[in-house]
From TrEMBL:
InterPro entries noted in UniProt: Homeodomain-like_sf, HTH_AraC, LacI/GalR-like_sensor, Peripla_BP_I, XylR_PBP1
Single GO molecular function: DNA-binding transcription factor activity
Naturally occurring in which organism (per UniProt): Herbaspirillum robiniae
Protein name: DNA-binding transcriptional regulator
Chain spans, region Disordered: 391-430
Bias kind Low complexity: ranges: 409-424
Domain HTH araC/xylS-type per the UniProt entry, residue ranges: 291-389
Keywords assigned by UniProt, alphabetized: DNA-binding, Transcription, Transcription regulation
Amino acid sequence: MARAPTVHRIALLFNANKIFDREIIAGIGEYLSSTRASWDLYLEEDFRCRLQGIERWQGHGIIAEYDDPATCEALARVRLPVVAIGGSYADESMYPQDRPYVATDNFKLVKLAYDHLIEAGLQNFAFFSLPEAGGNRWAQERERIFDGLMRRDGLQGHIYRGVETSAQSWDTAVEQLVEWVRGLPKPIGIIAVTDARARQLLQACQFAGIAVPEQVALIGIDNDPLARVLTRVPLSSVIQGTTEMGRTAAHLLHQMLHGAQFTNTRIMVPPAGINVLASSRHEVRNHPHVMQALHFIRQYACQGIKTEQVAHYVGISRSSLEWYFRRELGRSVHDEILRFKLDAAKRLLQAAGSNAADIAVTCGFTSVQYMHAVFKRELGCTPREYQEEFAAGADAARQPPQRPKKRSPSPLAGLSAPALAPSLDDGGNL
């Protein structure tokens, strides 16, 4: 009779409130689904309140987020197999000793965002970071990388850390952020250390009447779906290779549970690409009326605005605004409103289970029939056909990239435990 596989009890020490940690966990789940590993997973929504006494946990292995020094200290006494996950650092002392470490490549994350803003034709750059703290050392590393890129290119970069946001400090944080953005040279490209930080900056720009992306082109890091739905201007973001990190960490631990040793092994996982949306699509415009109009359209197109309302916001006649639009964009104000509504509808149709009638209302079309006619005229297909074509493509490639994506194979693919070499670059049960 065949022996049943050994069931290993594995603790996942992550903060499930963060998109970075959730996608790591998803990558671990993908690895388990594709192998014969039999694990019982111990997972808290936020492990930080469970660190005390973790060295006495009666399990078989741990995968943990190591960017917080408190985690490193608590797990230093653990004798179980542990795989650490976090960011990459220039300072070797920031890495845990005697632990395999899977890292997101911070240099490549910031460099990819910076290159994207350069490609948009921008010459001024800034970085919106987080206050200095032990738990934010990954943010300070990204800030340091940005500063290094500025010095390399002979530019003066602007860095702002702001304050930690809370209900008590929110008004003060917004006021200080608005003051900082207003004092920056325009137009400017800003890299936010996370999508959450980028969302705060978008709100500050809206409050201050600063046009995005005409005056401020903004890109975040994380590609967080929640940040996108909570902003009026769709947010561009660097896509981290987090699911690949989760798969890699699970593969390492799986082999360690069977005797493999990976002391001080480091594996850097590059970003997967950029999801380019409206917030960073900066185009040089010669006339401020066009910039103002585009800013208004991006915020309110899906609320059914008309050309007259756009002209009223800008403060000129409809005929004058139409003239400026045709001269600089080669299309009418109505065409621009319709183009933005169409893009919004396409994004919503890409979601599984989406309903065309609901989408028509959400995107400001007067009826589902009108949306149908616009799709046929502009794209040569119906909304349903577009949805089916996207779903068919998504089966072949889960997330169609907005820019060409170089996806290298897993650094562990096809390697047995002895062949794996370090890569040194730049509760409840489920």
